[in-house]
Amino acid sequence: MVDESMMNNSGVCDPEPETMESIMEQIDSVNIHRGSVVEGTVVDAREDGWLVDVGYKCEGFLPKREWTHRAIVEKVGEPQVGDRIRVQVTNVGQGEEAQLSLSRWRCEFDERWNALEEKLAQSDVIEVEGIRKVKGGLIVDCCGLEGFIPISHLAEEGRGINPANLVGKTFPVKLVEKDRRKRRLVLSRRSILEEELSSLREDFYANVHEGDILEGDVSSVTSFGVFVNLGALEGLVHVTELSWQRGAKAKDIVQKGDRVRVKVIGIDRENNRISLSLKQAQEDPWVNVTSRWSVGQKTKGVVTNLADFGAFVEIEPGVEGLIHIGDLSWSRVKHPKEVLRKGQEVEVVILEVDGERRRIGLGFKQLNDPWNNVAEKYSKDQVVNVKVVRLADFGAFVELEDGVEGLIHISQLSRQRVEKPSDVLKEGQEVQAKILEVNPAERRIRLSLRALEEEPAQERREERKRRPAKDDSHGSPKSFLPQQEEFTFTIGDHLNLNQ
Fold first, then answer.
1. What is the CATH number for 267?
2. Which family does it belong to (predicted)?
3. Which of 96, 239, 299, 416 has the fewest CB atoms below 10 angstroms from its CB?
4. Distance from first CA to last CA of the chain, Å, rounded?
5. Is position 8 within any domain?
C-alpha cells in the first residue's frame, strides 16, 4: 500500500527529497580525473577567466590563458555566461578548497591533431589555407592547426614567390616534419609543384622546338631582361632580344602580367633553361629596308650612340645608320662628341643603303656644305686671314672658315728657299695670305705668303721707274755723267731667276 502521507492534493506521489548523501553519491558517480574531456556550462565570468559547471562537486576554473593557444587557428570568440563548452581537466584539487583546473585549447589541440593524423594516414597530400606572411615563410591553417611553410618550399626550386600572394588561398601540401609535443608542423608546397612540373616539362620538351612561336605571361621584369611564364617552364628574354631598337629598356617595352608572343631561340634541357626572343617574333625592319630608304633621301633621327669612328642614328624603330666621323663636319673632328650628343635629334641624308649587310651610311655635313657659296666669298688676289691647321711635307693646310680649307704650297711660303714648312709656320698660327686660285668644283683653294712679300719690292721698283730725273742748272761735272738708277737685288730674286 502507498503511504497516504506521501500523496499530494492531486493524488500524485511527490518525489522523495534529495539528501546530501544522495547528492554526494551522484557526484562520485561522475568520472572526473586529470585528462578527462567533459562538457560544461559557463556559470560566471571573471577578469582572469571563467567558472564552468561540469557536474562535479565544485565548479571548474578556466583561466583565460587556457582558452586558446598560438598553435590553434581560432575561429570563435570568448564564451559568455550560459554557453556550453568542451574542456579538458588539467588538475583535480583535493581537500576543503578543492577546485578543478580546466583548459579548452588542450582539448581542441588533441582533437585537431588526431584529425590531422587520420588524414595523413589516408593520403600524404593535405589541403591548407594561407593565413599570414611571416619572416621566412607562410603560416597556414592545417586542420585547424597552424603550420609553417618555409619560403624555400613555397615554389619550385630556383623560382621565387611572394608569400603574401598565397594568403587566403587554398592549396595542397605535403608534410615535412611534425612534433606533437612541440606542437610543430612544417609543410611543403614545392614537392607537389615539382611533381606536376616534371610531367609538364616532359610534354613541353616533346612538343616545343627552337624556332617555335609561343605565348606566355610576363612574370618578372629585370635590368637584364624579362622572364616569361610558358606554363611548364619560365623562359628568359635577354635585354638584347627585347626590341629591334638599340638600348631598349625592359620596363619601357613590357609590364609584369602582359601577354606576349615570343620565339624560342634556345633550349637547355639539362639545366631547364629556355632562351626566348621578343623581337624575333616580330617583323625584322631590315627585311625590306631598301624599299623604304634610298640614296639622297633626307630624314630626321635620334643619336643613339657615339663611337670613335662616328655616330649611330636611329632613323626608324630598329633601323640605325652610321654617320662616319668624316661625314660629321667639314672641319677636322677628333671625336663625334665635338659635334653631336647622345639623344640629340638631327637631320641627315642617306649616303648608302645595304640591306644584306644591314648597313646604312648617313651624312650630316652634306646638308650644311660651306663650299656652296665659296665662289661668292673668295676671289683671286684677295688677302685673307687664315689659321694653320696642319703641316705636311709639301706645304701647309690653312682654314679660311669652318669647313673651308686651302693649301699654301711649300714654294709659296717665302721668297727664300724653305726646307720644310715647320721652319716658317706652326699649327694654330694665324697669318695673312693671298689667294692664288679658287676652285669650288674640286673644293680647292691655293694661297701664298710669298706673294705678299713680293708686293713691297714690286711697288718700290715701279716707284723708282716713275721718279723724274734731277736737272743740273749749275753745270756740275756730275751732270755730264750718265744717270745711274738705284737697284736692289735680293736672294729671292736670284732664286726666281734660277727657277
1. 2.40.50.140
2. Belongs to the bacterial ribosomal protein bS1 family.
3. 96
4. 178
5. no
Angle at which helices 491-498 and 450-466 cross, to 10°: 100
C-alpha cell at 436: 692664288
Cα–Cα distance for residue pair 67/69, rounded to 1 Å: 7
Q: Residue 464: phi, psi to the nearest 5?
A: -65, -35
Cell of 166: 598565397
Say which DSSP state 482 is in. Answer: P
The verdict on residue 110 lying in a domain is: no
Q: Is 175 helix (H, G, I), strand (E, B) or coil?
A: strand
Confidence of residue 23 (pLDDT cuts 50, 70, 90): very low
235: part of which helix (H) or strand (E)? strand 234-238
- Tally of CA atoms within 13 A in the half-sphere of 189 that contains its CB: 27
- What is the pLDDT, as a whole number, of residue 312? 92
Tell me which residue range forms the domain holding 357.
289-368
Q: Choose the weakest-confidence range: 51-60, 111-120, 438-447.
A: 51-60
Domain membership flag for residue 16? no
Beta strands 404-409 and 213-221, pairing class: unpaired
Q: Is 363 within a domain?
A: yes
Nearest to 250 by CA among 259, 240, 260: 240
Pair (375, 263) in one structural domain:
no
Average pLDDT over residues 457-479: 57
40 class by beta-carbon count within 10 Å (0-12 exposed, 13-18 middle, 19+ buried)? buried
**Strand ranges for 308-440 from DSSP E:** 310-316, 319-324, 345-354, 359-363, 383-392, 395-401, 404-409, 430-439
Nearest to 498 by CA among 431, 392, 417: 417
E strand spans, 364-426:
383-392, 395-401, 404-409
pLDDT of 489 higher than 60: no
Q: Which residues contact 482 (CB under 8 A, 6 or more apart)?
A: none
pLDDT in the model for residue 5: 45
Q: For residue 233, what are the contacts with CB-CB under 8 A and spacing of at least 6?
A: 197, 201, 204, 272, 274
